[in-house]
Specification:
Blueprint: H1 6-12, H2 25-41, H3 57-68, H4 73-88, H5 94-117, H6 127-154, H7 163-189, H8 191-201, H9 204-221, H10 225-231, H11 236-267, H12 273-348, H13 353-375
Helix pairs in contact: 2-3, 2-4, 3-5, 3-7, 4-5, 5-6, 6-7, 7-8, 7-11, 7-12, 8-11, 9-11, 11-12, 12-13
Length: 376
Amino acid sequence: MGSHTMTGIQGMHPGLNASPMRMPPAVALGYVVLYLLLDWVSYIHPMRGTNITAWNPQAALAVALVAWNPRCWWLVAGSLSAGALARSLPALNSADLVASLTQTVGYVSIGAAFRRWLNPVPSLATRKEYLVFLLIIGTGAALNATLYAGTLTLFNQASPQYLLQAISRGLIGEIVSQVVTLPVLFALVDRVRRAETFAMVATVEWWVVAAAAMIGAYVVFGRATEDQFKFFYLLLLPVAWGAARFGYVGAAWSALLVQLLLILAVQSAAYLPLTVFELHMLMAVLGAAGLLLGTTVDERERAEQALRASLHIAAAGDMAAALAHELNQPLTALRAYARASQLLAQRLAPPTPKAARRLRMSPRGSLRRRTARATS
């Protein structure tokens, strides 16, 4: 399903698809640094005793890497370990380290599912691909949340009575990161999507959409916390606008912009951790709805293009048939006149052998060949 084969991905990203022993050290180091940076930026209002946060963009980065190159699972495991160690400093928290390593299983499983049922870089060109994408990330997020929270509970890092709460919050954080961040990563890697992104950013309308998102965020998050849930739907408007006008790329980038505005609002005010998770649950729904709309717009546009192409072919066929008909009529009349001339010549006077041969050839030979050439 998708627009790229594995050969194309390898040609576009030779560094990412090399064997792990041959991966350039600069690429590996850059990935680890970016992972740790995203882990640090997104460490906002964690659940007490679990380090579970409502937004994990580094998870999308890990999934994208193992989807492009499954041999890089060791790099994902190393990044997870480095993040766990950085959070537990100056003391070493072995429970958090083991729990983070278990997430490697979930990320590798999601990447393998992408490669099996979609592509290393899913284009999400149809609604069917979109639904498969949601099913994969939903299942993978549930697996990761369960593994992480279960490991912490097993090591007595978290209380068993809060196990379901930890799983549900971990599920929210994983789904938000996959729904909002992964489509943007796919758009940056895919050549067609990247070109569409550049074309979109070059338009004035996209910046109007971005301004509308900022105004909507100011209206929503400038209110009291209990009123923010009532007016959160206003943030759907710029996402729907971007999806309707620019398709998949418009939905992906506008949803990411709203996500960043949400993080900025959460950082600039005093929110309860539960409130942060509830707002991100709404963000997950908003991102999924926008992505569905963008995929539908792209699918409809491709169907219209295919219909226009088929209409052009049909019009060309009708024109060819009409032209053949118009040419066939005079040629048929010429054949009839030639045959009549042959009959009249035979009645008036016996023709010479040369004339008789020409009269016999006219209706059957020369004109027939010309007719065949004209109507072919």
